[in-house]
Amino acid sequence: MKRILTLIGIATFIMACSKESNPAPAPTGEKATLSIQFDNIIGSKNLQLNTGNYTNAAGEQFSISKLQYYISNIRVKTTAGVEFVVPQDSSYFLVNEAEPASQFLKVRVPEGDYATLTFVLGVDSLRSTMDISKRTGALDPSSGMDAGMYWGWNSGYIFFKMEGLSAAAPVDPSGQNKFRYHIGGFGGYSAPTLNNIKTIVIDLTAGGIARVRKGREANIHIMTDVMKLFNGGTMVSIAAHPTVMFSDYSVLIANNYTSMFTHDHTEN
User: Fold this and answer.
1) String of DSSP letters for 138-183
2) Domain boundaries, the chain
3) pLDDT for 186-229, tens place per residue?
């Protein structure tokens, strides 16, 4: 019996040592910078404002003059399944194609090996209804209005904005064939309304997990294919819908653009 107990003890010790030599990665108390890059493309082409010409699934040619969208509520999860939520006050960003620096989001997360990135496309209802003193930086309503990302008449943020020119669009008062997609709606403050808040989950394993360490900056490279707005589950025609804002059709466009984001690679 003593010999059996001894053998069991030895086996247990060996197993414990084996586990300790390969500990499961998990966030530590040490924080480091994680960069998340949103590289805007359209189909197989790099997006170029004003000069690029593209064709959607409806056969309509168009160019894009403006592209902006809110990324918020960022979370990461390690290969061991341990999640870290970036503090909300540090988790609201406005990506603007016209401003290259805005396409690199910097957050502080614990050191660890991260296999999943989650974020919200838009601004959550809680923050949308907070006192203005709690909505600073990219969420400052005055700066949001300057950027054209806040509806003063509707007291809400525009989550995604894309504008451009197309012969398929009717001539507007300025004499241009302009299309406009301004998508928002957080579900309503005192009564239910449109809710176009979208949560996006990105698996990083195929393109390389993010190994966050002090002393170096990991960068998750996300490709944002805005052609998905036209060519998603609903085929969007500029001729049929040249301007979409706070309407039922905006839900279909929001459902389309949830598939815009794919992980290209990670630089560690």
Assistant:
1) GG-HHHHHHTT-EETTTTEEEEEEEEEE-TTSPB-TTS-BEEEEEE
2) 2-267
3) 987 767 789 999 999 999 999 999 999 999 999 999 999 999 99
